Please model this.
Amino acid sequence: MMARILSLALLALPAAAFAQPLPRDPLGSPMWEYHAGKLFAGAPVVFDDAVRVDLPMLAENQHVLPVSVDARSLEKVVRIVLFADLNPIPVAVEYEPIAAQAFVATRIKLDQRTPVRAAALTADGVWHVAGGWVDAAGGGCSAPPVSRVRGDWADHLGELRGGVWRGAEATRVRLSVRHPMDTGLVENIPVYNIDSVVLSDAAGGTLARMTVHASVSEDPAFTLMFPPGHSGSVAVAARDTGGMEFAGVLVAGGATRLAAAAW
Model:
């Protein structure tokens, strides 16, 4: 009877009561605890060199910072989150590899000097975190994209380019979608960005999917890795915050090929 009362009492406790204490941030960010509390919701967190985050120490162009995340040395990665602590839009990409390897590369905007991090969630419920500081001049999120300045963004909206390259250790898939990726932080330009990308095989099975945020650079580009045995074309379906949907098929080849866009 006492054990039953104890069990009921534990069920009545708020989730925060079971939250794991956060490890000390090796980067000393003033926003670490805030973002970690929101992103990890009390789950175990470890700083782990097994998550490799490649990025420059200095952003030569704060509108286009290349970042790659390689968590393939971990087992059973189910989700990867890429975020910048001090950006007004911190999270850039939330990636579910599903049938892909735990690797994603893209380009993001930086609004100031900030830590840029990746967090990989393994099937045991543990978040593995790594990253580093990047110096940036600022304004990456609060300046209009180039296509807005030129005025030709609507002429190319949704154009999809990419390809599939098979290798001995992995099959590489690269794709890019023409889109202004407006942050909503530029006067008179509301937020407007690609928010969902899904990759499927020829039979319609989901290979990978990601949620994309406005802190990803204009004309978002992604490089993903699949097991070396992967063969065949890869279908891409993307959606933006305005309800537009774009689709195409990436095919094998040694060069980037234009795929069809659906309007």
